[in-house]
């Protein structure tokens, strides 16, 4: 169970996340959807206690992340492709995390098997491809067999077989009663994976609904998404369907609520 | 631990993770990087080699210098090299986590950040202290054998010699902790190493050139070479214990500042 309440994060005068509130319930895959730069990763980092919010709070199982008794046993997260030292082997990286989380070392071999990295467990992880890095990150998330899982853009760098594998993995985890929050900007992927959707744009909540409801009027999820985010895409090329005047100077011409252009985090 | 303890949901285990878990984590991390071992080997080999070379080149003092002649100081010359290598590893223990992204998995495992830095400092400071004391004694014993037979060899039982050797080893342990603090303060590898080299070498050398020992004597490298690694304290320098006490204060201040920055800034 994840509860986000009035979460706000500013970088200078720009709000990356603004007064964001939503819950992520157990037993379902909740898709966290939004254009590039909409604040998905920032929100996830605040849930993990890595970034401090300027206002509001994010609770996991009713507590701020920093107050969890056994963080890795309660929350597993794939935050970015590479969150390991390139000079360390996959096995050593996970063993160190397991030690910090009070998790038996035998669990390391188990999760390496689960993600299919047993063969390369003792190779320097710096030699891994993006897909392998992603799998190592997922192994780290599964390490403590946690009840809450966060995946930030998990299909990045995975081949089609890997994409199907992570999709089945997330659905399986939710079916076991776990809380699964997965961010993506790939709507087609979300349509196949998610039961519930939290859609944000420019750091604000745009929709908190089931996939079925969002597409109830017969629209595809993609159409529904564009309708929701039409005013809040931060980065948009000029050759797209809604090509407009120079966005660098006036990026928010389509949105009365948008206030300023935002750089990457 | 049964598999039931790993079932989903909160409250899976009694108690809470603690410093012992974090120490184990940092110990595994330190020893699982090949660069750690290479660097520590460099410290051992470099300090002994410099001790031997310096002693082999030590000439018998002229009559007027006999009172201040201190071969113990010569044999410990390698501390200057050792502190650079130890300092760089200490800095990298923290900045390497930022550049690789592993700081995020570390802080996800251990969200109480002061514990992370304390474990890094304890593990690396402890390893360095033990290794440096051993190397300091080895260097002394091997180095003095290289001394011109015409010169009387210093002995550990001579006044101040044992203290000089012990303090030189301890100095590197303090540098290890200070470097971890600098890494947490500065975060970027190149800048942090710049700060380290500036504090240890560049600034004191410039001050020594401009104002002699007046200000320079308060810098770590000067304290190590002229206050700690001496069996005959030099009148214009800090006394051994004053120098050592000042180093303790420096280390505590830099480390505390590192903790503060680590806690307050986004990871």
UniProtKB/TrEMBL annotation, chain A:
Keywords: ATP-binding, Nucleotide-binding, Transport. GO terms for molecular function: ATP binding; ATP hydrolysis activity. It comes from the Bacteria. The keyword Metal-binding does not apply. CDD domains: ABC_BcrA_bacitracin_resist (cd03268). Residues 237-265 are annotated as: Disordered. SMART domains: AAA. Belongs to the ABC transporter superfamily. This is ABC transporter ATP-binding protein. It comes from Streptomyces mesophilus.
TrEMBL record, chain B:
It comes from Streptomyces mesophilus. It comes from the Bacteria. Coiled coil: none annotated. Keywords: Membrane, Transmembrane, Transmembrane helix. The chain crosses the membrane at residues 37-55, 75-94, 115-141, 161-186, 193-219, 239-263. This is ABC transporter permease subunit. PANTHER family: INTEGRAL MEMBRANE PROTEIN-RELATED (PTHR37305), MEMBRANE PROTEIN (PTHR37305:SF1).
């Amino acid at each position: 169970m994840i509860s986000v309440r009035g979460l706000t994060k500013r970088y200078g005068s720009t709000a990356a996340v603004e007064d964001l509130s939503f819950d992520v319930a157990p037993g379902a895959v909740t898709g966290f959807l939004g254009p590039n730069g909409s604040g998905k990763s920032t929100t996830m980092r605040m849930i993990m206690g890595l970034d401090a919010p300027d206002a509001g709070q994010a609770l996991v199982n009713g507590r701020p992340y920093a107050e969890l008794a056994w963080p890795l046993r309660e929350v597993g997260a794939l935050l970015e492709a590479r969150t390991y030292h390139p000079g360390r082997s996959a096995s050593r990286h996970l063993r160190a995390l397991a030690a910090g989380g009070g998790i038996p070392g035998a669990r390391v071999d188990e999760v390496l098997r689960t993600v299919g990295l047993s063969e390369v467990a003792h190779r320097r992880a710096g030699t891994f491809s993006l897909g392998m890095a992603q799998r190592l990150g997922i192994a780290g998330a599964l390490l403590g067999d946690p009840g809450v899982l966060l995946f930030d853009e998990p299909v990045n760098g995975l081949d089609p077989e890997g994409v199907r594998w992570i999709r089945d993995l997330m659905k399986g985890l939710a079916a076991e009663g776990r809380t699964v929050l997965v961010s993506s900007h790939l709507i087609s992927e979300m349509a196949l994976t998610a039961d519930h959707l939290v859609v944000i744009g420019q750091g604000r909540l745009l929709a908190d609904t089931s996939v079925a409801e969002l597409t109830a009027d017969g629209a595809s999820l993609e159409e529904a998404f564009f309708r929701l985010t039409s005013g809040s895409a931060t980065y948009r090329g000029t050759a797209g369907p809604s090509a407009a005047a120079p966005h660098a100077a006036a990026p928010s011409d389509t949105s009365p609520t948008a206030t300023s252009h935002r750089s990457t985090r | 631990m049964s598999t039931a303890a790993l079932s989903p949901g909160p409250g899976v285990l009694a108690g809470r993770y603690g410093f012992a878990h974090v120490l184990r984590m940092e110990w595994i991390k330190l020893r699982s990087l090949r660069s750690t071992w290479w660097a520590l080997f460099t410290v051992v080999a470099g300090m002994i080699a410099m001790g031997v070379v310096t002693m082999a080149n030590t000439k018998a003092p002229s009559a007027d210098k006999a009172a201040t002649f201190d071969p113990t100081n010569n044999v410990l010359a390698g501390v200057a090299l050792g502190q650079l290598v130890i300092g760089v590893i200490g800095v990298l223990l923290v900045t390497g986590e930022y550049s690789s992204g592993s700081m995020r998995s570390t802080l996800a495992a251990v969200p109480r950040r002061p514990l992370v830095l304390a474990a890094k400092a304890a593990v690396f400071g402890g390893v360095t202290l033990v290794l440096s004391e051993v190397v300091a004694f080895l260097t002394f014993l091997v180095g003095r054998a290289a001394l011109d037979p015409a010169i009387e060899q210093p002995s550990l039982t001579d006044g101040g010699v044992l203290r000089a050797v012990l303090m030189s080893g301890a100095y590197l342990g303090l540098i290890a902790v200070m470097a971890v603090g600098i890494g947490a303060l500065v975060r970027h590898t190149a800048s942090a190493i710049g700060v380290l080299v500036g504090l240890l070498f560049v600034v004191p050398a410039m001050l020594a050139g401009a104002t002699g020992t007046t200000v320079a004597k308060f810098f770590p490298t000067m304290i190590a070479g002229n206050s700690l690694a001496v069996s005959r304290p030099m009148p214009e320098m800090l006394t051994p214990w004053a120098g050592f006490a000042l180093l303790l204060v420096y280390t505590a201040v830099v480390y505390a500042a590192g903790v503060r920055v680590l806690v307050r800034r986004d990871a």
